[in-house]
Amino acid sequence: MSFPPPFYRWRPHPWHGLEVGPNPPSIVTAYIEITPFDLVKYEVDKTTGYLKVDRPQRTSSQPPTLYGFIPRTYCGQRTAKLSPKSKQGDGDPLDICVLSERPVDKSDIILSARIVGGLQMIDHGEADDKIVAVLTNDNVWGSVKDIKDLPEVLIERLRHYFLTYKLIPSEELEVSIDKVYGRVHAEKVLKATMEDYIDVYGG
């Protein structure tokens, strides 16, 4: 029996088995781990590719957007060079936040997103950039080209979430967001993570 290409006999690993996107560095694939309705932090298990429970959130903070990563990216030395205060990349795929007008309450899904900017986040000295994107065919956000076109309150919510989602009482938080950047720099970050991925895992 023949199947139309591409056909996966087994489910591909979300990090290594999916394509970066239909038109990178502009339009990318996003694998979604968390929705704005989740009070538990989920993340993909790097060995199996299944979604696992990382931790219940300690605070009432919820992600203001869909949150996941871009396949076949890796935050390594090239990525760290774009973040001057970072010592190294965090060794994870590149994180992405995707705006959608309609509520999406399912995780473990993929979607196409247009990159519009990002947050230069540093976590314990490691580059941990958060790319900001919009759902490509979204009726409200789909036409946005750059982060400056988004309401400032949305960026404030993203900043607040990432500065507090690892907060533990009585422990000092070593997380900072050095700047918010636009589409041009965000695409440079994506290209760097794609090259870092090839260095580590091959083409």
List the helices and strands and how they pair.
Layout: E1 27-34, E2 40-44, E3 51-56, E4 66-69, H1 77-81, E5 88-89, E6 95-99, E7 109-123, E8 126-127, E9 130-135, H2 152-164, E10 175-182, H3 183-201
Parallel strand pairs: 5-8, 6-9
Antiparallel strand pairs: 1-4, 1-7, 2-3, 4-6, 7-8, 7-9, 7-10
Can you offer a commentary on this structure?
- Strand 2 and strand 3 form a beta hairpin.
- Helices cover 18% and strands 30% of the residues.
- The protein has one domain: Alpha-Beta Complex (Inorganic Pyrophosphatase), CATH 3.90.80.
- It is built from 3 helices and 10 strands; from the N terminus they run ββββαβββββαβα.
- With 203 residues, the chain is α+β, with helices and mostly antiparallel strands.
- The mean pLDDT is 93.
- The strands form 2 sheets. The chain has a 5-stranded mixed β-barrel with strand order 1-4-6-9-7. It has a two-stranded antiparallel ribbon with strand order 2-3.
Ends: how far apart? 30 Å
Strand order of the largest sheet: 1-4-6-9-7
Unreliable stretches, pLDDT < 50, 5 or more residues? none
Order of helices and strands: EEEEHEEEEEHEH
CATH class (first level) name: Alpha Beta
- CATH domain fold name: Inorganic Pyrophosphatase
Number of domains: 1
Cα radius of gyration in angstroms: 16 Å
Q: Give the number of helices.
A: 3
Portion of residues in helices?
10-25%
Task: Tell me the number of strands.
Answer: 10
- By CATH, the superfamily comes out as Inorganic pyrophosphatase
Question: Main β-sheet: number of strands, strand sense, barrel status?
Answer: 5 strands, mixed, barrel
Q: Shape, please?
A: globular
CATH architecture: Alpha-Beta Complex
What would you call the structural class? alpha+beta
State mean pLDDT (0 to 100 scale). 93
